Amino acid sequence: MDEMRPNSGAHLGLASLFPQGLQAIYGECRRIYPDQPNPLQVTAIVKYWLGGPDPLDYISMYRNVGCPALDVQEHWHYVSLGLSDLYGDNRVHEFTGQDGPSGFGFELTFRLKREAGETAPPTWPAELMQGLARYVFQSENTFCSGDHISWHSPLDNSESRIQHMLLTEDPQMQPVQTPFGLVSFLQIVGVCTEELQAAQQWNGQGILDLLRGVHVAGGPWLITDMRRGETIFDIDPHLQQERVDKGIDTDGSNLSGVSAKCAWDDLSRPPEDEDDSRSICIGSQPRRLSDKDTEQIREALRKGLEINSKSILPPISSQRHSQDRPVSRKDSLESESSAAIVPHELVRTRQLESVHLKFNHESGTLLPMCLRGRLLHGRHFTYKSINGDTAITFVSTGVEGAFATEEHPYAAHGPWLQVMHMLYSCTRKSHSCLHPGLKFFQSAKGTSL
């Protein structure tokens, strides 16, 4: 349960009584809003570190008058407090020193258009931010600028077309160095379904740049207007789509993988074959992805999100040790279920003659993007199952370290399947660019290959 109240902390005269992480973020807010030292806040009645359900201790809400000279309209500005380490005493986040990130290393912000006659900020953005924070705390996955979030519901529970989100750096708030590490500020930007799909096919930063150039779609500071009824493609259908198409052809897509409902079957032999590496068991425990496989998939996705760089799969022979990265935070594919049951050395890579791939509908719609935006640019794309340890990676001939090859285009390492894409005579939008052994068909339940 949350409540809204004035921020009484801003008036504390003794800094020693004020948590230093909180004080540092308030200092950045006071720099931008010197005339609002006591903003309204939504606060968790029972703090997360006392067993409450809401990870954010506070969400501060400011009135921003905008900047007509920059075509920035008046709006409400929301700032979260709690994803970073506010206290430095391990009550929420493990203190790891000043040199790294504070907590998860970021706080969320949101800019909502102020409607005529509004005297107080709506509080629904606070619950939206709490929902995103719950995801971060539960999964320990962090957000980055350019990320997209599929929400599939109006952000304010109305009939709005604004049903998804992109993330970008807040245009006003600068990163803050606190005694407990660095904090940056990621702004939530509400977008329509068509804009989300374009971000998936190209990249989030490209779509954000298009939104900045359209006043009603956000303008320079990307202010969300929940009453916006037109997408940027409705407003300027030819120009915007041409820029997206050109961006995809020139840059490819930065989306290197998704969590999905997916599965694959080896049609080369009966599934009950005891030599099938997907059904290896020790005792009564099923074989799962090893730590090394999981780390390789995770590293591939991480590299795939790097802008203006060619992503590669790490070589199979390379060994990543756990001390290379902090153990307190997970990347997008790490989970407790990924612990190795069968040692990596005992699972052989197996070449397959034919495979059957299955995807749910939403995942299947990304296959054209996988081909046009990733494989035709010498990159890779991974589907990681949300229901188990299965992973399917499409790779091209330019991807280093892949165990699928031109000679053996289907290869499996335990439940991790790779499918090699080879450039035949084909158009950029053709599905036939995949190996001829794969066939497309559409069903009500999803897409199968």
Explain what this protein looks like in three dimensions.
InterPro entries: SUFU-like_domain, SUFU_C, SUFU_C_sf, SUFU_N, Suppressor_of_fused, Suppressor_of_fused_euk. Residues 266-294, 312-337 are annotated as: Disordered. Residues 242-420 form the Suppressor of fused C-terminal domain. Residues 52-228 form the Suppressor of fused-like domain. This protein has 449 residues and is an alpha+beta fold. The chain is 20% helix and 24% strand. The chain has helices at residues 20-32, 124-139, 193-201, 204-212, 232-235, 237-251, 291-304, 361-364, 367-374; strands spanning 2-6, 40-44, 58-64, 75-81, 101-113, 148-150, 164-169, 176-178, 181-191, 257-260, 262-266, 281-282, 285-286, 349-352, 355-359, 381-385, 391-396, 410-413, 416-421, 441-443, 446-448. Strands 1, 2, 3, 4, 5, 6, 7, 8 and 9 form a 9-stranded mixed beta sheet that branches. A 6-stranded mixed beta sheet has the order 10-16-17-19-18-14, covered by helices on one side. The chain has a 4-stranded antiparallel beta sheet with strand order 11-15-21-20. The longest helix is centred in the first third of the chain and has 16 residues, at 124-139. The two termini are 47 Å apart.
